[in-house]
Structures are given as C-alpha cells and as structure tokens.
Amino acid sequence: MNALLVGADRLGNIPDVLHNFGIRIAAHVSGRDTTHQRRSTPLPSGVGLVILFTDFLGHNVMQRFREAAGKQGVQVVCCRRSTCALQQALDRQMGSRCDECPRRCEKASGGRRRASSAG
Q1: Residue 6's closest CA among 25, 24, 23?
Q2: Which residues pair with 29 in a beta bridge?
C-alpha cells in the first residue's frame, strides 16, 4: 500500500515502521506550505492511506487532507510523529487487515524481525 505522509520536516525511523506494515511512502508533505491551508487538492494517484502527524500540523491543514481523503475514499490515520505512536495507530487501524494478509510481514512480530529457528 502507498501512503501520503503529512506533517514533520524529517521522518527519522518512521519509514522502517511503515515497511513493517508493508506500506511504501508515495509522498511526504511537511504541511508548512500556506496553500495546504486554503484549498483542497487531490491526493497523488495510487495513494491508499494518508498519515497525518498531528503534532506538526494546524487544524486547517488536517481538515484539507481529511476532506481530500474522504472524497477519494482513502483511509486516514492520525497520530503524533513518533515511531511508537505510529505503530499503535497502525495496529488499531489495520490490525485485522494485517492478520488476513498473505504477506505475513514483520508487523506480526511487533516490528521486530524474528530469527528463524531450525528443527
């Protein structure tokens, strides 16, 4: 799944958390641009998830991206910009979908990679 990340200037370890859920970053927008506050633009094509980092966004910016996601039927996740907060938000939002996923990625192990045991 491709995601649009909104908020924060730097992502730090967030791409690693997203990778554990099988999520690719399609685009990252800081939300500082004043045009994001005034008008609602369509989301980039192929985006299936919008992640809003609430501690770096104003209400108007969040509202515009929520509206755009709603118009396009795209799922929205809101959380603070920390790996723990993102992990918890994705667990709540996508937990049941991950259990049914045929990929069985590292999410099932809580983001930690398990060493395979032989025998």
Answers
A1: 25
A2: 6
Q: Name the residue among 8, 74, 67, 2 with its Cα closest to residue 41.
A: 67
- In this structure, the strands spanning 47-53 and 75-79 are parallel
Distance, CA of 82 to CA of 47 (rounded, Å): 22
End-to-end CA distance of the chain: 34
| Cβ 106 vs Cβ 113: under 8 Å | yes
- Model's pTM, two decimal places? 0.77
Starting from the edge strand earliest in sequence, which strands make up the sheet with 2-6, in order? 24-29, 2-6, 47-53, 75-79
- pLDDT by residue (tens digit) across 90-105? 998 876 555 666 665 5
Phi first, then psi: what are they for 73, rounded to 5°?
70, 35
